[in-house]
């Protein structure tokens, strides 16, 4: 039980990738999951790269089973896998809306349920849920993204009340604009999620330009990795770790 063990989802890019490297540098054993497993850096001693699709129950079970078999325990789970499905609320297909919730919300829920029995037995654990400043504030075209992050935060807070008695904490990190593929994907989605001759075209143009400017002011993914680490290791954590708007504002 001496070696600290962290599981990080969405570790093939952006903040998850930077967090995997940071925890490894600090001597943790890192179990890093993503669909593009080949993008996860391999480090035989410190980073174990595992294929993971958080929308798939079998994949989630295999991920946690592998970790517990190899490491025997788990200190921290970082639910980071996520993306933003941007576009007019009226026009995004139900399939895309469901996938947004499967990835950003249900994936985190299922993985957490799978690690909690072990964390309770250890009488220690930390669940770090990567929400967004968008879990509190919102803008047009982000209805389903914001809804997933708001849901994640409420769920995380309730979970914290329930599991604190077992020495486990559940906290959220709320990044603002951060350099990754997120901004590009959101911009692309806002256009691809539009019906031909959409009544929302002017709004999409306006919001896309705003989002573009917002992302130009973004911080580095490695900055957020530091916040993930703080959220995972602080003794008396706040339930929220806000790091937004390039101001490095943190509560
Ligand atoms: P990136 O797009 O750079 O990385 C997202 C990661 O999530 C990738 O490693 C991707 O891996 C993984 N992922 C996506 N879907 C799945 C899936 N079904 N199963 C497993 N892994 C998956 O994003 P960021 O680093 O920017 O985002 C990380 C988190 O931070 C997200 O939850 C995002 O919502 C949040 N966030 C981001 C902000 C930003 O400005 N960048 C702002 C606020 C919050 P792969 O495709 O290989 O599976």
Automatic annotation (TrEMBL):
What superkingdom heads the lineage?
Answer: Bacteria
Per the database entry, which stretches of residues form a coiled coil? none
Supply one GO molecular-function term: oxidoreductase activity
Q: Which Pfam family name is an example for this entry?
A: adh_short
Question: Do you know which InterPro entries this protein is assigned to?
Answer: NAD(P)-bd_dom_sf, SDR_fam
Question: Which of UniProt's keywords are assigned here?
Answer: Oxidoreductase
PANTHER family the record matches: NADPH-DEPENDENT 1-ACYLDIHYDROXYACETONE PHOSPHATE REDUCTASE
The record's similarity note reads:
Belongs to the short-chain dehydrogenases/reductases (SDR) family.
Q: What is this protein called?
A: SDR family NAD(P)-dependent oxidoreductase
């Amino acid at each position: 039980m001496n070696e600290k063990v962290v599981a990080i989802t969405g570790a093939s890019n952006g903040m998850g990738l930077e967090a995997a490297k940071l925890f490894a540098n600090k001597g943790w054993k890192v179990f890093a999951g993503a669909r593009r497993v080949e993008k996860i850096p391999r480090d035989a001693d410190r980073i174990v790269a595992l294929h993971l699709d958080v929308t798939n129950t079998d994949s989630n079970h295999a991920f946690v089973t592998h970790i517990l078999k190899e490491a025997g325990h788990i200190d921290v789970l970082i639910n980071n896998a996520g993306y933003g499905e941007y576009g007019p609320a009226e026009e995004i297909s139900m399939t895309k809306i469901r996938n947004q919730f499967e990835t950003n919300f249900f994936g985190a829920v299922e993985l957490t349920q799978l690690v909690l029995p072990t964390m309770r037995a250890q009488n220690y654990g930390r669940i770090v849920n990567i929400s967004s400043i968008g879990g509190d504030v919102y803008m047009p075209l982000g209805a389903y993204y914001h809804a997933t992050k708001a849901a994640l935060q409420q769920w995380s807070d309730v979970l914290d009340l329930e599991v604190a008695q077992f020495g486990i904490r559940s906290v959220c990190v709320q990044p603002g604009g951060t350099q990754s593929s997120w901004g590009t994907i959101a911009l692309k989605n806002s256009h691809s999620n539009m019906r031909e001759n959409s009544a929302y075209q002017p709004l999409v143009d306006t919001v896309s330009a705003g989002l573009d400017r917002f992302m130009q002011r973004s911080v580095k993914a490695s900055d957020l990795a530091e916040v993930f680490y703080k959220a995972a290791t602080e003794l008396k954590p706040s339930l929220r770790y806000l790091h937004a708007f390039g101001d490095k504002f943190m509560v």
